């Protein structure tokens, strides 16, 4: 049995038509990987469709896509669905159940991915799914230049905190070096990624960070975002990207939680940590998942209760590290 990476390469070479999907509410890694995979298929002369249950976030409106981003497969006539950066099938949102598992290849770097395709290349050691897509491009003989490079850089840079998170790999940096030699202007692309804020987002962050609280002897930072905050500032969930990392900037904070109230009830939570503090196990205990230092999930409880529950769980995790 060939390894999953080789099998995906084989199926791409042999196939003629493809779906490319990623998790709903795509972040930089999901959208960048989707765009890059589309450009790879285009370079190979394949027929393909890009699909996602959610539209592209406004802050990535500048990112060039090789095809429109559809909300459903246009037809059932495809050889392979390539699902990117998706920790499990439910994260596909409304696309879950619309893809044939027997014709699905999963490419992902999240811990705990159950492997819901016929071929599953799951590599938690990779810094980003974009890193894995870049390796596929090289396997397929597609140069990492032009729009492919910009999409891959967006994927890798955003998922590694611009190459500052502990998950950043040597392979990731070597791929970026190759793209720079091929003409990638990291200054231009980096500015497009970072400089997309609105005044409303500034107002949201000002209000939210003003209520940040510390717990567990100052080792746990907690941030909460209510629907009223969104309403007051004219913002939405997309304006919360990167917000949680500010809690980790406080001296002594080893883990952080962000709880975001959902309009239908319950909360979406994000967890972050530094060093040896493993918050993936905390997320998993509440039905979520992710990485050792970056995880998340949902809770069907009110905002106050969810925040208290997660703070208590994080405090237990950081105490051994402190001791």
UniProtKB/TrEMBL annotation:
Q: Which Gene3D superfamilies match?
A: 3.10.310.30, inorganic pyrophosphatase (n-terminal core) (3.90.1640.10)
Q: Which Pfam family is one of those matched by this entry?
A: DHHA1
Query: What positions does the domain DDH occupy?
Result: 18-155
Q: Which InterPro entries match?
A: DDH_dom, DHH_sf, DHHA1_dom, Oligoribo/pAp-PDE_c-di-AMP_PDE
DHHA1 domain sequence ranges: 233-318
UniProt GO molecular function = nucleic acid binding
Q: Which domain of life is it from?
A: Bacteria
| Protein name as annotated | DHH family protein
Q: Which organism is it from?
A: Solidesulfovibrio magneticus (strain ATCC 700980 / DSM 13731 / RS-1)
